[in-house]
Amino acid sequence: MELKELEFIAGLWKGKGTAEVNSVKGADYDEETIFEFEKEKQLIFYVQKTWRTVDGKRIEMLHFESGFIRKNDAGIIQLSNSQGNGRVEVMELEDTSLNDKNAVLMFVSKSHGNDPRMIETTRQFTFNGSKMKYEMKMATIMNDKLTGHLRAELEKAQK
């Protein structure tokens, strides 16, 4: 797969999600994620911000991260990020389904830095036209089974 096939994800995505810890619902949140496709460098830059909500109102920032989706020298598509809590992560695309403006992308962690609690994470993004769903699962030293952590549904904002 070539990154240019994912150019359609570029733009601002807005929506709502739910965070869980060890399968216990923790918080509802608003999310805004921006993907920018850089043709010359053949990479996708992204910024993700989430806010805890109560009764539909934002009350505090929950999470902030930014990173890149790129193809490395070995031809593997990677998602790398730096998170507001200090964690860094590199994931590799393990599974994909792609046609026209629809895609399912499954990334699996290959390395974590600056957070000794982390064992493994996965992120699955499903793009269907102007809708995006994603699910993030993680395993930590407190819960070594890969379990749901984040689930969100976003829509692409109109220009």
Short summary of the structure?
This protein is mostly beta strands. It has strands at 11-21, 24-38, 43-54, 57-71, 77-83, 88-99, 102-113, 118-128, 131-140, 147-156.
Describe the structure.
The protein is an all-beta fold. The chain has one domain: Beta Barrel (Lipocalin), CATH 2.40.128.20. It has strands spanning 11-21, 24-38, 43-54, 57-71, 77-83, 88-99, 102-113, 118-128, 131-140, 147-156. A 10-stranded antiparallel barrel has the order 1-2-3-4-5-6-7-8-9-10. Strand 7 (102-113) and strand 8 (118-128) form a beta hairpin. The chain is globular, with a radius of gyration of 15 Å. The two termini are 27 Å apart.
CATH domain class name: Mainly Beta
| Beta-strand content | over 45%
Number of domains: 1
Tell me, rounded to a whole number, the average pLDDT: 93
Helical residue percent band: under 10%
Count of individual beta strands: 10
The end-to-end distance, rounded to whole angstroms, is 27 Å
